[in-house]
């Protein structure tokens, strides 16, 4: 039963990835026109999400995501089984009642999910936001840690 739940999560993570890629395709196709018109729309655009680097250090998985302009209050991180989801929203920052002459840095909303390559210990997970880069350190579960195997001569 637990195995089915994991497959269910992976199916949603794959559908989320497909949706993200399709959003990126349409976002890229619309980008030149959006920059020419100045994009004065105040509503948050849904983007494919930040560029992410996921790597394995042996004892931990590290995720680095570029999310400039967001604070820790704008970011949500969840871990369900082996699916990590990072979502966030940057709201319009022009004061109410002011006239905007040019706006290239609009409101955005994103959500990205990743199926992690190994089990992690959620209690030992840390997230640090510094200079617009979110760094998640997900320590691997004990059974997923690399092990040294002693060699004996006979």
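-> sequence recovered:
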């Amino acid at each position: 039963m637990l195995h089915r739940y994991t497959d269910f999560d992976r199916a949603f993570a794959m559908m989320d990835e497909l949706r993200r890629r399709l959003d990126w395709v349409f976002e890229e196709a619309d980008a030149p026109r959006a920059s020419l018109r100045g994009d004065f729309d105040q509503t948050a655009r849904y983007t494919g999400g930040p560029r992410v680097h996921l790597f394995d250090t042996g004892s931990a998985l590290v995720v680095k995501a570029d999310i400039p302009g967001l604070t820790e209050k704008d970011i949500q991180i969840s871990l369900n089984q082996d699916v990590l989801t990072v979502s966030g929203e940057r709201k319009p920052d022009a004061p109410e009642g002011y006239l905007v002459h040019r706006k290239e840095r609009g409101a955005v909303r994103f959500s990205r999910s990743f199926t992690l390559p190994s089990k992690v210990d959620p209690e030992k997970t840390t997230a640090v936001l510094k200079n617009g880069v979110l760094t998640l350190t997900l320590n691997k579960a004990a059974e997923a840690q690399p092990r040294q195997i002693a060699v004996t001569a006979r």
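The chain has a mean pLDDT of 82.
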